[in-house]
């Protein structure tokens, strides 16, 4: 069985900083990591490999040359190999462009039984890529999956999270599945796995290797124009309390009660 897990490289939001206006993010020079939802998908793939025979897990990602370092985390978590589609223009690609390239890469890999993705990404969370990929590959899809169960060798039962209810579906392989964060808790790779990750195979492809024209893919990214990307405006009252520590604490509690924070 061949499982492809689509991984996305995102800005490390834990280290995000803002300009003096408090709303405009500073993205230049920010460290890149793999998204949390993608790690849920990879964890599920690795668990399948650990519970079944003859399973190969391939981490697939498209983006900038920084991927060569970022993808090593996926290899340390248990992926057997990685396939990277490197192009400078893919770093800012839209869901349309990314899904087009990912689908072409899956076709080039060939004989893929299961494609796993996160339900959304940490940065944009559009949730479009799984459905666009499934459409491009002409494969069935099951979205927002929180639990997978095998029925025989080539059939899956999936539990979907629809917010106020759960839906159970069954599907034969091959299939595209997007997972939620409730699916599992991704493992933290031990030091030995991190060291071994550097020796696992990594294939690097270009858009030309997929018979795709760079301008064609990038033009899809131009379909969406981002007007702004700002943090919500916050009004601060700048209330200062004076007196002894005890008096300041009492004044703070009264202020919180007045605002309805405490009752």
Cα separation of the termini: 58 Å
CATH-derived topology of the largest domain: Rossmann fold
Mean of residue pLDDT? 85
What is the helix fraction of residues, given as a range? Answer: 25-40%
Instruction: Give the CATH H-level superfamily of the largest domain.
Output: HUPs
**Global morphology:** globular
Which consecutive residue ranges, at least 5 long each, have pLDDT under 50?
none
What is the strand content? Answer: 25-35%
Radius of gyration based on Cα positions: 22 Å
* CATH secondary-structure class of the largest domain: Alpha Beta
Side-by-side strand order of the widest sheet: 11-10-9-12-8-1-6-7-13
Number of helices: 8
Tally of DSSP β-strands: 13
- The CATH architecture of the largest domain can be given as 3-Layer(aba) Sandwich
Helix-and-strand structural type: alpha/beta
Q: Into how many domains do the coordinates divide?
A: 2
In short:
The protein is α/β, with parallel strands linked by helices. Helix content is 30%, strand content 25%.
Describe this structure in words.
With 263 residues, this protein is of the alpha/beta class. It folds into two domains: 220 residues, 3-Layer(aba) Sandwich (Rossmann fold); 31 residues. Helix content is 30%, strand content 25%. It has eight helices and 13 strands. The strands form three sheets. A nine-stranded mixed beta sheet has the order 11-10-9-12-8-1-6-7-13, sandwiched between helices. Strand 10 and strand 11 form a beta hairpin. The chain is globular, with a radius of gyration of 22 Å. The termini are far apart.
């Amino acid at each position: 069985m061949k499982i492809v897990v689509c991984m996305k490289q995102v800005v490390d939001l834990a280290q995000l900083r803002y300009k003096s206006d408090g709303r405009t993010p500073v993205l230049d020079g920010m460290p890149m990591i793999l998204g949390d939802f993608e790690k849920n998908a990879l964890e599920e793939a690795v668990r399948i490999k650990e519970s079944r025979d003859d399973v190969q897990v391939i981490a697939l990602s498209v983006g900038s040359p920084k991927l060569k370092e970022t993808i090593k985390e996926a290899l340390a978590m248990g992926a057997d190999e990685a396939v990277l589609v490197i192009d400078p223009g893919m770093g800012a690609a839209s869901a349309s462009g990314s899904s087009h390239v990912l689908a072409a890469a899956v076709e080039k890999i060939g004989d893929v039984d299961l494609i796993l993705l996160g339900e959304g990404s940490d940065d944009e969370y559009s949730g479009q890529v799984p459905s666009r990929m499934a459409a491009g590959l002409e494969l069935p899809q099951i979205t927002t999956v929180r639990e997978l169960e095998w029925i025989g060798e080539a059939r899956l039962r999936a539990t979907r999270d629809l917010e106020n209810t759960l839906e159970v579906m069954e599907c034969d392989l091959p299939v595209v599945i997007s997972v939620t964060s409730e699916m599992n808790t991704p493992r933290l790779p031990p030091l030995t796995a991190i060291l071994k990750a550097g020796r696992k195979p990594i294939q690097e492809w270009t858009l030309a290797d997929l018979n795709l024209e760079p301008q064609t893919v990038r033009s899809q990214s131009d379909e969406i124009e981002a007007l702004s990307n700002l943090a919500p405006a916050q009004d601060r009252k700048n209330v200062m309390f004076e007196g002894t520590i005890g008096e300041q604490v009492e004044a703070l509690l009264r202020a919180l009660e007045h605002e309805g924070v405490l009752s």
